[in-house]
Amino acid sequence: MLTIARWIIPLKSQLQTPIIIVNFKTYLEATGRRAVELAKQAEKVSKETGAYIVVAPQCADICKVAEAVEIPVFAQHIDPINPGSHTGQVLADAVKEAGAVGTLINHSERQMKLADIDAVIKMAAEKDLVSCVCTSNPPISAAVAYLHPDIISIEPPELIGSGVAVSKAKPEEVSKTIRLVRKVNSEALLLCGAGISHGEDVAVALKLKTQGVLVASAIVKAKDPYNILREFADAIKQ
């Protein structure tokens, strides 16, 4: 098995596209031992297809997941804090020590002020953690682009968990986001999130010139997560 350290320092230069990030959220289907089982299924698909898959379990599960699989593991959130008196908050050093190599930032279910997003992006960079900032619309995406995260994922909140893919329902939002972001940032990877449920949704997202997808319930809540992951992976490898 690869050691965790293999991913940590060089990961940003090793990020491959298209990329699939699977957010485990706090679903029971992806909690504790089931988080490890789901991560292993994602790893199996990655090895079988060559697709670049990242998993984002709950903080409590990062360590056990990172020890069990070779694919990259992200945290779901970190707070803009330094070590000290911050009971209940999530420290960048802690998620890195647990084995995370990146983090989601500003998910619609864990929104942050722009100043805090900026602080967390900088903290992530200092700790060699990949920053993936979720944004709700094109103007916010453009504002975040100025902060130079590694990844921006466009996720209209009304479509999250809806089963209606943003790549199909709001392709103009995706295209406008890309145009605005690229005016100020030519390096950040751009992903589609919200409602991505089928391989076809992934294919449409890539045709819109995004570089991957951020998904959650379609995988985590599926009766057969392996088959859905395989469908997604096959779509990005076409």
Considering the chains and any ligands shown, give keywords for the structure.
single chain, 238 residues, alpha/beta, TIM Barrel, eight-stranded parallel sheet, globular, disordered N terminus
Write the layout of secondary structure elements.
Blueprint: H1 5-8, H2 11-14, E1 19-23, H3 33-49, E2 52-56, H4 62-68, E3 74-75, H5 92-98, E4 102-105, H6 114-126, E5 130-135, H7 138-145, E6 151-154, H8 166-169, H9 171-184, E7 189-193, H10 199-207, E8 212-215, H11 217-220, H12 225-237
Parallel strand pairs: 1-2, 1-8, 3-4, 4-5, 5-6, 6-7, 7-8
Helix pairs in contact: 3-12, 7-9, 10-12
Give a description of the structure.
By secondary structure, the chain is an alpha/beta fold. The chain has one domain (17-237): TIM Barrel (Alpha-Beta Barrel). Helix content is 44%, strand content 15%. The chain contains 12 helices and 8 strands. Strands 2-1-8-7-6-5-4-3 form an 8-stranded parallel beta sheet. Strand 7, helix 10 (199-207) and strand 8 (212-215) form a beta-alpha-beta unit. It is globular and about 45 Å long. The protein starts with a helix and ends with a helix.
